[in-house]
Amino acid sequence: DQQVKQNSPSLSVQEGRISILNCDYTNSMFDYFLWYKKYPAEGPTFLISISSIKDKNEDGRFTVFLNKSAKHLSLHIVPSQPGDSAVYFCAASEGGATNKLIFGTGTLLAVQP
Amino acid sequence: GAVVSQHPSWVICKSGTSVKIECRSLDFQATTMFWYRQFPKQSLMLMATSNEGSKATYEQGVEKDKFLINHASLTLSTLTVTSAHPEDSSFYICSANSGQFGQYFGPGTRLTVT
């Protein structure tokens, strides 16, 4: 049973435009959510996180939105750059960032120059 | 930032042999480390939680006798794949818990069993 899902396996965006990556979860006990960027044969790189007590967190070009009632979160990247091209995973945990993470299925983002 | 290393980065072994993968936190102590595996074009699946000085906690469906985890010190956890088979070929990634700053991931180890 996939508790964290990313329904779009891929997304293509023009450079300079906004990239929106979506993530849905089913476990209402999740209280901390993270986004990671990953290249093949490398470990994930942390991008941004959000606690369930918030509905928005912003860090530079990256903003994460959380809609608890819908069990949905999204990552906005503005403006998108070719270097952003990678696979993006959302992850969720119960009890904060130091607990085990359940990863989503990933979305391959391609930013076209 | 905190650094987590894995060794080896790539290993090929013959079916039936055992392989050990090391995960080290280089500049911080980690009482808890996690082991994940990723098949091609799939998600990262949590295998087990490794706690320093105690037995690892395995996720449902992960054979603890096949994937031996030892967390002997605050900076080192090892994953041993025993009697490896081709279906164990995968990308294995560890993460180390740095406390309030969350988890840091290693670069991963690609295991190919022939």
Give the SSE layout.
The complex is a heterodimer of chains A (113) and B (114).
Chain A: E1 4-5, E2 10-14, E3 19-25, E4 32-38, E5 45-51, E6 56-59, E7 62-67, E8 72-77, E9 86-93, E10 102-103, E11 107-112
Parallel strand pairs in A: 2-11
Antiparallel strand pairs in A: 1-3, 3-8, 4-5, 4-9, 6-7, 7-8, 9-10, 9-11
Chain B: E1 4-7, E2 10-13, E3 19-25, E4 32-38, E5 44-51, E6 57-58, E7 67-73, E8 76-81, E9 90-97, E10 103-105, E11 109-113
Parallel strand pairs in B: 2-11
Antiparallel strand pairs in B: 1-3, 3-8, 4-5, 4-9, 5-6, 7-8, 9-10, 9-11
Task: Describe this entry's structure for a reader.
The complex is a heterodimer of chains A (113) and B (114). Chain A has 113 residues and is an all-beta fold. Chain A is 0% helix and 53% strand. Chain A has no helices and eleven strands. In chain A, the strands form two sheets. In chain A, strands 2, 4, 5, 9, 10 and 11 form a six-stranded mixed β-sheet that branches. A five-stranded antiparallel β-sheet of chain A has the order 1-3-8-7-6, with no helix packed on it. Chain A starts with a strand and ends with a strand. Chain B is mainly beta and 114 residues long. Chain B is 0% helix and 54% strand. Chain B is built from no helices and eleven strands. Classes of the chains: A mainly beta (113), B mainly beta (114). Chains A and B meet through strand 5 and strand 10 of A and strand 4, strand 5, strand 9 and strand 10 of B.
